[in-house]
Amino acid sequence: MSNLEDLYREIILDHYRSPRNRGELAVPPATRVEGFNPLCGDEITLYVELEDGIVANVKMMGHGCSISQASASMMGSAVKGKSVEQVREQIRTFKQLMTVHESTLEHDGEPAKVDLRALGELAALQGVVKFPVRIKCAALAWNTLSQGLDELA
Ligand code: ZN
């Protein structure tokens, strides 16, 4: 288990140090949404561009702790090229991951109800659930994206 935790920490640090999808998009056609986590001071400005119901492009600016920035970076890569419905499903899955407590973990340490394979690198954030204060950090980008999709709908 500690090897896995090391790997997860490495993935998070890699995304924090080299964030993907940094930048801005022209509005319109993109939508701009801002998110703020006052508990930690994390900020994100997200640009989402849809094309025929597909997330054609995602860019973001922001700053904050390693968890918030790594989560945003991973999210951008995970949702690009996906349909709005698929992205909403990813948001649901991620929120599930953030609410899985250890009591619901199976013997092998995998969350019982969450399909981690569907999350790819985002599974690296599952350790965050042990630190309730950080859940809002990890969820910031996803809540902001969810808001953006609502505005585009
Ligand atoms: Zn934070």
Could you describe the 3D structure shown?
- The protein is of the alpha+beta class and 153 residues long.
- It has a single domain, classed as Sufe protein. Chain: A (Alpha-Beta Complex), CATH 3.90.1010.10.
- The chain contains four helices and three strands, in the order H-E-E-E-H-H-H.
- It has helices at residues 2-17, 66-79, 84-99, 132-152; strands at 31-37, 42-51, 54-63.
- A three-stranded antiparallel beta sheet has the order 1-2-3, with helices on one face.
- A hairpin with a 2-residue loop joins strand 2 (42-51) and strand 3 (54-63).
- Helix 1 crosses helix 2.
- The longest helix has 21 residues, at 132-152.
- The structure holds zinc ion (ZN).
- The site of zinc ion has 8 residues, from helix 2.
- Zinc ion binds next to helix 2.
CATH topology: Sufe protein. Chain: A
**Whole-number tally of structural domains:** 1
Provide the spatial order of strands within the biggest beta sheet. 1-2-3
Query: What's the helical proportion of residues?
Result: 40-55%
Largest sheet: 3 strands, antiparallel
Briefly, what CATH class?
Alpha Beta
| Bound molecule kinds, no repeats | zinc ion
